[in-house]
Amino acid sequence: MSKPYFISVFDDEQKLLAGIKAAKDKNVKIDEIYTPYPMHEVIEAMGKKSRFTFAAFVYGFLAVISILSFLYYTSVIDWPINYGGKPTSAFPSFIIITLVLTIASITILSLFTFSIRAKIYPGKKYIMPDLRATDDKFIMVFEEENSGSKFEDLNKMLMDCGAEEVYKKEL
Fold first, then answer.
1. What is the pLDDT of residues 132-144, one digit of tens each?
2. Do residues 16 and 46 lie in contact, with contact meaning Cβ atoms separated by under 8 Å?
3. What is the per-residue pLDDT across 25-57, written as a single tens digit (0 to 9) for each?
4. Where are the domains of the chain?
5. DSSP string of 72-137?
6. Phi, psi angle pair for 7, to nearest 5°
7. Which of 127, 143, 146, 139 is nearest to 163 (CA)?
8. Sign of CA dihedral 7, 12, 15, 16
9. Architecture of the CATH domain 4-47+135-170
10. In what order do the strands lie in the sheet with 138-143?
């Protein structure tokens, strides 16, 4: 099911940043921004904080607890082996395996978290609002029902910020 979107096209990153600031000042919700190259200023101007670092910390904490529990259970409780009088619960022998498996767990779980959050899955048809974003243009997309303003008001505001064009499109 397609939804109507307002799409604005900018030719300069400074004009795009001015458009983002104007949209934030008027409480217009920006749905997505497409740029031909990564721009840290856009992320800062949008004000969206990533929670991936917290998720990675939680994944790491749970991985350490579960890996140490598994290693302790298998080497001390379930199948203790006597290595010439050495203690079965020698913690230093668990450190390297715990470190390596924790890093692997964080990486794999973060990959799945990012894929789910970005709604990336095999066979998904990708919809590009404007193909010029892959060349040299900067695209800002507003969902019509969430923008909180009419097309004429949004058009005037973005044209004043230096947009080349603003148009409505069903995606």
1. 888 899 999 988 8
2. no
3. 888 888 899 999 988 888 888 877 888 999 999
4. 4-47+135-170, 52-117
5. HIIIIIIS----TT--TT-THHHHHHHHHHHHHHHHHHHHHHHHHHTT--TTPPP--S-GGGGTT-
6. -120, 130
7. 139
8. positive
9. 2-Layer Sandwich (3.30)
10. 32-34, 138-143, 4-10, 165-170
Give the residue from 98, 110, 90 showing the smallest Cα distance to 64: 98
8 A C-beta contact, residue 137 and residue 11: yes
Q: How far apart are CA 76 and CA 64, in angstroms?
A: 17
pLDDT of amino acid 108: 98
DSSP 26: T
Contact call for residues 166 and 159 (beta carbons, < 8 A): yes
Q: Which residue in 46, 19, 9 sits closest to 137, CA to CA?
A: 9
Q: State the 10-residue block means of pLDDT for the chain, 171 residues long.
A: 87 92 89 90 82 95 97 87 75 91 98 91 85 90 76 89 91 82
Closest CA to 132 of 3, 9, 5: 9
pTM, entire model: 0.70
Q: What is the pLDDT of residue 98?
A: 96
